[in-house]
C-alpha cells in the first residue's frame, strides 16, 4: 500500500502542529518519523490512521491513489500500535489478539475455527505460543508490546502504524525488539510507519527516515543519507552525536576551534557554525596541518570505544571517539595538550544553525 500525504496542516488552538507537510511512503517500505517533542510526528501518524483530522480544506491522505480523509480508521484498514500497548487487562493474550477478528468476524466471513487458527499463527510469529492463557500483567514489557503488535496484525491491515513502540522499555529490551521488528517487517512486507525520537532506533530500523522539526519535514532519505549527508543544521545536530563549534568563514577558508585572535581583523569574515562528529577527528600529527590545539579534560576507556573530552583554545568543549587504542597518541591524560585535526566537517551560516538549534 503506497501512502501519499499532500500539503497537510493541523492547528491546535494557536499552535501549528503541521505546516503543509507532504510525504510519500512507497509500498512495502518501513519509514521512521523522527524528531523532538512537538515536531508534529505523532500528529502526522494519527492523521494517517484517521484518529485526527487535518485543518478543514487542508491537503489529502491517499492510499494507493485513493483519498481516505473521509474514511474511518476501520475503513482505512490500518493497524495501530500504541506506545503503552493499550491491552485489555481482563483478557488473556489469546483473547487480546482475537478481539479485532471477533469484532469483524461476520464481515470477514470467518468461523471461530478460522479465528483460532489466525491467532495461533500470530502467537507463533511473536514467539509467545506458551503464554496464550496469561494476562497482560503476567508479561514483561517486551512481551506485552509483541502482543499489541500481533493484535494490530490480526485483522490483516494494509498499513501498520506504530507510535513510539519501544519508548516504555529498557535499553536492552529495546535493542532486542528492534531487531525482531525489522525481521518481522521483512517477512510480512507491510507498508509501515513508526514514530520515534530515538535517532539510533530510526537509523537501525527504517528504510526511510523522515526528520521533522516544528511541524515541517527537514529531510527524507535512507538512514545513511540522513546521517552522512544532512541538508540542514538541524538534521546535522539532531541525528547522531556531533560537536558544535562557532567559526568564521574567511574567503574560501573556515576557521574554528581556536582563539579568535587566529584570524586577522582585516580579512572579510562571516560567522558560521561547524559540526564535526566525534569519530571524525584525528589526534596528534603535525601542528602545521589544518587543525587546532586542545587540552584533554577527561579520558573514558571502558568498552569498545575510547572517548575523550577536550577543550579548544576557543573555550569550546568537545568529544573525540576512536576504537579503543586505535591510532591514538600514547600517554593520553587529563591536562595534556594535543593537536586535533578534523577529517571531515559540515558548516552552515550562523543564522541558519541558530534556528535549527532552537527547534
Overall description:
β1 and β2 form a beta hairpin. The chain is an alpha+beta fold and 359 residues long. It has eleven helices and 19 strands. The chain is elongated and about 80 Å long. The longest helix is centred in the middle third of the chain and has 18 residues. The C terminus is likely disordered. A six-stranded mixed β-sheet has the order 6-7-8-3-9-10, with helices on both faces. Strands 14-18-15-16-17 form a five-stranded antiparallel β-sheet, with no helix packed on it.
In terms of per-residue confidence, which ranges show pLDDT below 50 for 5 or more consecutive residues? 355-359
Number of helices: 11
Query: What percent strand?
Result: 25-35%
Shape call = elongated
Radius of gyration: 25 Å
- Helicity level, as a percent range? 25-40%
Characterize the largest beta sheet: strand count, sense, and whether it forms a barrel.
Answer: 6 strands, mixed
Q: How are helices and strands ordered from N to C? A: EEEHEEHEHHHHEHEHEEHHEEEEEEEEEH
Question: What average pLDDT do the residues reach?
Answer: 89
The separation of the N and C termini measures 32 Å
Number of strands: 19
Would you tell me the structural class of the helices and strands? alpha+beta
Query: What is the topology, as strand order, of the major beta sheet?
Result: 6-7-8-3-9-10
